[in-house]
Amino acid sequence: MCPRLQEETYVFCQVANTRLMDVIANSLCIFREGEGMSVILPRNLARQHGLVASAPFRLITLQIVSGFSAIQLTAIVAGALADAGIVANVVTVLRHDHIFVPEDSAERALQLLRGISNRAYYT
């Protein structure tokens, strides 16, 4: 899996004003929900635009090509983090799984995921 913790801190926000093109253009992820557009973006960008944001999250990217074909990977990762009491928001896209964890749990989550990766490698 080779989990890698990204340096940036991210937040989740709802963007109601589509004129905030800088926010939209610099978002890591955009998802259109029935209530409006939700974005994942760097915390400093949310602050710069005065957006109401979630608590801060760090991003751990699993450096294994997984995408949609890794049937149990999401369940294993989410289950292990849940068992450790770590909130996780998993975003799976074409090539990798990306896990957002609370900023204050990021290092612990990274170590846990490295342990899973090591056990999988040696079994």
TrEMBL record:
InterPro entries given in the database record: ACT-like_dom_sf, DUF2241
The DUF2241 domain, residue ranges: 1-58
Tree of life domain: Bacteria
Entry protein name: ACT domain-containing protein
Species, as recorded: Microbulbifer spongiae
